[in-house]
Amino acid sequence: MQNETPAINVMTVLRIGAVLLLLGACLKVILPFTGALIWAAIISISVWPWYLRLAHLIGHRRGLAALLVSSLLMLSIAGPISLMAVKLAHVLPDAQSLETLSHAPLPPPPAWLERIPLAGDKLTQFWLSVQGDLPGMLEKLRPTVNKVALWILEQGASVGFSLLEIILAIVLSGFLLTKGDELWDGANLTLSKLGGSPAGDLAEVVARTVRSVSNGVVGTALAQTILCVIGLLIAGVPGALALGFLCFVFAVAQLPTLLVWLPAAGWVFYTGDNAYGVFLLLWGFLLVNTVDNVLRPLLISQGAQMPLIMIFMGVIGGLLAWGVIGLFIGPTLLAVALTLYRHWLGEAEHPAG
């Protein structure tokens, strides 16, 4: 019997090594699609109740319901990001070209510039010096402008890659919806195998957490963005769609949206249209900010009970890790991790039996 022990140990090591090798190979294959797969799962869990209602309304045709939901997500999410990418493509050539600006005459300094306290005289003198040698000034700025153009190129490539990930995630979510019942049963069985009977309700807890964060963060940001774009269009602010996308990013990142519409209102005042400037200020403070202050705490508090600082960390960390798609993945993953930790603490305080 003593001679058989080394052989048994060798076979065990070989089996473990083969399993680890298989897992490593699978991980390497799936790794490029990790972000898209995670977000596809988040989308599927978030829209699952609406998907079931739609399938019921159209005669329990789940395949058609999944197609309709995916098409709506394409229009509402991938569409605006595509428009943003097109805007960047149009802005880039203007950012790169200084030749046209060098031949354009610079107007005299405005009268109000000299009346600025403390810095008025210096700003006027600087304006006059630039007016006298505009080509030379632009030539000094050329290295900086080239760096800015390169940065815009990199951001455009990042947005393009994120757009492909978003499209892939939406397509995958359609497939996940059609197989939702089977995947749900598999998730419950897996959690029961890993955690035993106390983990029986864990899948439902995680699903509620994902829905609350998705609705609270993304839903509130979408509502703010729609209101912001409507206000910008009414006030006649150029580039309203691009500013709307920026507003959406700020809102998801838990940053104040007034960073977008307040400078826009200042631009409207600068153009001399005071009535629309006042309108945009009232629209921003009374509607855009009110939606943020009312909807977000209500929707998030219903499920995740997640501190806003963790949502901010999730958004910024997700953005750094996965790009634009990380805006949606980061806070959801942290919320799920926090929920699992609290569930574990609850089981530790009240052990089964």
TrEMBL record:
Q: What is one GO cellular-component annotation here?
A: plasma membrane
Localisation per UniProt entry: Cell membrane
The alphabetized UniProt keywords are:
Cell membrane, Membrane, Transmembrane, Transmembrane helix, Transport
The source's superkingdom equals Bacteria
InterPro entries, alphabetized: AI-2E-like
State where it is primarily located: membrane
The portions of this protein that span the membrane are 12-30, 36-52, 64-86, 157-177, 217-235, 241-262, 267-288, 308-341
Q: State the membrane topology.
A: Multi-pass membrane protein
Q: Which family does it belong to?
A: Belongs to the autoinducer-2 exporter (AI-2E) (TC 2.A.86) family.
| Cross-referenced PANTHER family | TRANSMEMBRANE PROTEIN, TRANSPORT PROTEIN YDIK-RELATED
This protein is called AI-2E family transporter
Species this chain originates from: Crenobacter intestini
Q: What is the lineage of its organism?
A: Bacteria, Pseudomonadati, Pseudomonadota, Betaproteobacteria, Neisseriales
